[in-house]
UniProtKB/TrEMBL annotation:
CDD domains given in the database record: GT1_Gtf-like
Family in the record: Belongs to the UDP-glycosyltransferase family.
Broad enzyme group: transferase
Annotated organism of origin: Nicotiana sylvestris (Wood tobacco)
Keywords assigned: Glycosyltransferase, Transferase
GO MF terms held by the record: quercetin 3-O-glucosyltransferase activity; quercetin 7-O-glucosyltransferase activity
EC number(s) reported in the record: 2.4.1.-
Annotated protein name in UniProt: Glycosyltransferase
Length: 458
């Protein structure tokens, strides 16, 4: 196939950022755009699964043997990534040109705003790809502008931001509300530093989900919502089976999970996952374990191997001995296949943005147990705006107790409120599908992006 445009994609090298950019890349490629993903050497080494139809080339963040874990601090990592990353991206652009594949456009993660300078140096078009919700981006924008000043003076201070429902201070991203996250917040606020110089701001969300905030942000930047970026086969059954999920740091226990789910009754299982990064306090892990057990529901729980030692003593052994197949604990699962499985009736989630979008797209009611980063804001929207779940309340120590977990699961799976939530999930699932279907809001935005790309000549 001869391509008319070539996008170089630069993700921030963590699972939750690389996944949506890879899926977006696949969509662009299906529209005849050549794609090259620039991934750090360390990220490439840690990949367990590397099956992707798009090409991947290595760049360097300056820490080839350990990535961020090798850096003395987060600030040091970001600074060195900028220096070494700019050079190695430039070399890559030149190499691709020499090979006969000149790049037209850089699509970069705004955690790495220096990519704009690289694009300008070579006269390339440039698009930022925000992997978080438009609501969360809007909050960071207001911190960037100095309009939103936190930490709050009161525990439940109300906050009004244009384009958003009124939120409380506990609903803002953790980096904004906790002073010790100053470095991370600086990076998040810096996402806006070069935006006036670029051609597009792409957001992994869909218009119908975040209408007001998208309209508001569109007055500031050339916003295009292009999500949900989940593989099209999960949204459209007519497409050929393409369940590969591309780039994964962890190896999914696919057969164990699907075999176990196949033996459970319809809508009976609570699926539990806290994504790729979140670490729970040992006491929280204990509360969660007993909350699940006491709920009397069947559960499939992803406990990453680094978290396993926090499980209560004998918990796994007791599970294995239990007469009815009550629970399965795995180190990683094929989440989309699990969420679309007919046995799953509830998703107990940390509300990472990918997990939230995946639950919305596959119509799974949620129990929201946000931990940090953008998760508190996503959880607020899930419960109060989209009404797709309930949020499990923390106590004064910041822990969600077993009784609360048990109660939330019961509400979602058994009560009248759960039925209302289930009805809502059907509505959002339909809207998510429509957005990416031919002629839907996100599909039109991607089409416009691609046709503009083709008309610009360099
Ligand atoms: C991080 C942040 O924590 C999150 O808040 C932010 O919105 C994005 O970056 P992460 O914590 O990993 O991401 O959560 P999430 O955004 O939900 O992404 C996790 C991804 O891993 C999802 O795409 C999910 O499908 C996948 N996953 C998770 C699996 O494939 N298998 C699993 O067992 C668990």
């Amino acid at each position: 196939m001869s391509h008319k445009a070539h996008c170089l994609i630069l993700p921030y090298p963590i699972q939750g950022h690389i996944n949506p950019m890879l899926q977006f890349s696949k969509r662009l490629q299906s529209k005849n755009v050549k794609i090259t993903i620039a991934a750090t050497k360390f990220f490439l080494q840690t990949m367990q699964e590397l099956s992707t139809p798009v090409s991947i080339e290595a760049i360097s963040d300056g820490y080839d043997d350990g990535g961020i874990y090798q850096a003395e601090s987060f600030a040091a990592y970001i600074t060195r990534f900028k220096e070494v990353g700019s050079d190695t991206m430039s070399q890559l652009i030149e190499t691709l040109t020499t090979r006969g594949y000149p790049v037209n456009c850089i699509v970069y993660d705004p955690f790495l705003p220096w990519a704009v300078e690289v694009a300008k140096k070579y006269g390339l078009a440039c698009a930022a790809f925000f992997t978080q919700s438009c609501a969360v981006d809007n909050i960071y924008y207001h911190v960037h502008k100095g309009v939103l000043k936190l930490p709050p003076t009161e525990v439940d201070e109300e906050i009004s931001i244009p384009g958003l429902v009124t939120i409380e201070s506990s609903d803002v991203p953790s980096f904004v509300s906790t002073p010790e996250s100053a470095r991370a917040l600086e990076m998040l606020v810096n996402q806006f530093s070069n935006l006036e110089k670029i051609d597009w701001v792409l957001i992994n969300s869909f218009y119908e989900l975040e209408k007001e905030v998208t309209d508001w942000m569109s007055k500031l930047y050339p916003i295009k919502t292009i999500g949900p970026t989940i593989p099209s086969v999960y949204l459209d059954k007519r497409l050929p089976d393409d369940k590969e999920y591309g780039l994964s740091i962890f190896k999914p226990m696919t057969n164990e999970c699907l075999n176990w789910l196949n033996h459970q009754p319809i809508s009976s299982v609570v699926y539990v996952s806290f994504g790729s990064l979140t670490k729970l306090e040992p006491e929280q892990m204990e509360e969660l374990a007993w909350g699940l057990k006491n709920s009397n529901k069947n559960f499939l729980w992803v406990v990453r191997s680094t978290e396993e030692s926090k499980l209560p003593k004998n918990f796994l052994e007791e599970l294995k001995l239990a007469s009815e197949n009550k629970g399965l604990v795995v180190s990683w699962c094929p989440q989309l296949q699990v969420l679309e499985h007919k046995s799953v009736g509830c998703f107990l989630t940390h509300c990472g943005w990918n997990s939230t979008l995946e639950a919305i797209s596959l119509g799974v009611p949620m129990v929201a147990m946000p931990q940090w980063s953008d998760q508190p804001t996503n959880a607020k929207l899930v419960e109060d705006v989209w009404e797709m779940g309930v949020k499990a309340k923390q106590d004064e120590k910041g822990l969600v107790r077993r009784e609360v977990i048990e109660e939330c699961i019961r509400i979602v799976m058994e009560e009248e409120k759960g039925k209302m939530i289930k009805e809502n999930t059907k509505k959002w699932k339909e809207l998510a599908r429509n957005a990416v279907d031919e002629g839907g809001s996100s599909d039109r935005n991607i089409e416009e992006f691609v046709s503009k790309l083709l008309t610009i000549s360099y």
